[in-house]
Specification:
185 residues, alpha/beta, Glutaredoxin, 5-stranded mixed sheet, 5 helices, 41% helix, globular
Length: 185
């Protein structure tokens, strides 16, 4: 009787482990990318690649490794009051610092309406690429729980700043200049 119970418990645990591994692989497949083991979306850790369609439906893949420029990634939603506040500053930063950084917006479309997102971009005249996270996989991977949330990723693919909420234009300038310098680690 004890052998049967032990065998049943072992089989149950192995089945549970198999289901867990299958679900993990399914989550990675849903993003179109392998989810990096131990990925932590915070300063000092390597960024995970982001591969999403833009508003033009072209697929953009950014982050996850070395690039030539600082990478600025901003997660937002059209209904977000602080996102409305910062939109003009982000456009100005894009225009002023485009030579030292690449800027991308990630609309968390699973929490938004695509039409509203497009109207937001048009209203504020945003000219940097906007990626559409329709399923929320990248928003979840980067553990974005509030909007706006921004990441500065250096040329080596390392997250240097995670900013939750709005900061001043002067603070953005300071951070961009700090992390866009060669070997700014």
């Amino acid at each position: 009787m004890k052998k049967t119970a032990a065998w049943f418990i072992t089989a149950f645990l192995l089945a549970g482990l198999g289901i867990f591994q299958y679900m993990q692989q399914g989550a990675a497949a849903a993003t179109g990318l392998a989810s990096p083991s131990g990925f932590k979306p915070k300063a000092g850790y390597e960024s995970a690649a982001i591969s999403l369609p833009g508003m033009d439906d072209a697929i953009h893949t950014i982050g996850g490794g070395a690039g030539e420029k600082l990478l600025f990634v901003n997660f937002w939603a059209s209904w977000c009051g602080p996102c409305v506040m910062e939109a003009p500053d982000l456009q100005k930063l894009h225009e002023q610092y485009g030579d030292v950084m690449e800027m991308y917006g990630v609309n968390s479309t699973n929490y938004d309406k695509e039409r509203s997102a497009r109207e937001f971009v048009e209203e504020f005249g945003l000219t940097f690429p906007m990626l559409m996270d329709r399923e929320g996989t990248i928003t979840k991977l980067y553990k974005v729980n509030n909007f706006p949330t921004s990441f500065l990723i250096d040329g080596n693919g390392v997250i240097r700043e995670r900013i939750n909420g709005v900061v001043t234009y002067a603070e953005w300038e300071r951070l961009i200049l700090k992390w866009s310098k060669p070997n700014a680690a």
